[in-house]
Write a structure and sequence with these properties.
Elements: E1 4-5, E2 22-25, H1 31-41, E3 45-50, E4 64-65, E5 68-69, H2 72-75, E6 79-84, H3 89-101, E7 104-107, H4 113-116, H5 121-127, E8 132-137, H6 152-158, H7 179-202, E9 206-211, H8 212-217, H9 223-230, E10 247-251, E11 257-261, H10 265-274, H11 278-281, H12 289-294, H13 296-307, H14 312-321, E12 326-328, H15 332-337, H16 339-343, E13 347-351, E14 357-361, H17 385-391, H18 396-404, E15 408-409
Parallel strand pairs: 1-13, 2-3, 2-7, 3-6, 7-8, 8-9
Antiparallel strand pairs: 4-5, 6-15, 10-11, 11-12, 13-14
Amino acid sequence: MDKVTNEASGAASRGAALAGLKVLELGQLIAGPFAAKTLADFGAEVIKIEPPAAGDPLRKWRLLKDGTSVWWQVQSRNKRSLALDLKDPEGQAVVRKLAAEADVLVENFRPGAMEGWGLAPEDLLKLNPRLIVLRISGYGQTGPYRNRPGFGVIGEAMGGLRHLTAEPGRVPVRVGVSIGDTLAALHGVIGILLALQHRHATGEGQVIDVALYEAVFNCMESLLPEYSAFGAVRGPAGSALPGIAPTNAYRCSDGGYALIAGNGDSIFRRLMALIGREDLASDPALADNAGRVARVQELDEVIGAWTATRTVDEVLAALDQASVPAGRIYTVADIAADPHYQARDMLQQVRLDDGSTLTVPGIVPKLSRTPGSHRRNAPGLGQDSEAVLREVGLTPQQIQALKDRCVIQGASA
């Protein structure tokens, strides 16, 4: 982790997978900006539009360093900032100029907001028929719930995830990160890449409609067909995975937990042999998953009795030797010290504008020929306003007039 990545040392965007792709980001907080961040990591030129004075609220979320969230350094890396008032007609005219030259526009406002600003996707597509518009919202652009405000946690609940994240009989808990927003963002990126492929063949742009709850629901595996076929309503199961056995978190002698996934047929036999239960390894009733599910409580007790006499490290070493998938429950301190994270370049140090360094997550996925890179730090509010406006043909006088009316914010030329 000694290598420090910054604007000067980052790989040039011209060798990246999305080099030359122009993206206009109008969203804020998590889902839309995460989608644009993913595109920017792989070379897209992302212009982030945020309100003057306040900027994206994420700038002030969670822990701040010198007044700015360290999360901001991840979510907005490789982007340029244009501080622009979308509610002002002149600001809207600027967006239309930018959209006329963009490849992709990303927004995650409540449905109807873009239309209210005179920026409806159908109108933007008339200006630029090749434009791809990603719209992320809580409930989608259609349907009876379309006008409701929707955050990630609401989408997680409606999508079926929240009901499953609890110990049986206890209050369902939320996942500790904004997983609904992130899933929606990743579905949005998939949609953009699909739309780019279609545009490559036809020259046509299109609109992508991603709902937070649908992105979560898309990851709910067999939940719906089980209900359709059997009337089964899957409930919370704590650290286990219903219908798949044995797989659970088992307490060890040092108070920690080992996650053990012994649910493959041959893996189960190796696990039972390791813990001295050859009788279970050779039991024909346990030869497949259905048989093991029927006796899951017995198997959990047997495995738990074995782990209870060993530390987490001892359990994991033995399971690794036996080729049984297992792992510990990582804290961020564990992550920061882990040699595998380091070897995979997932702990990147970036040099901030004040000269200090910050460790941030590396870039996923790993591409062999066109990998992503950290090319520039997250921008200050309005850092690129004037440069962006000059690029779309505004004169210094026009830019100054917009500054005087507080339609834009940026440093003096």
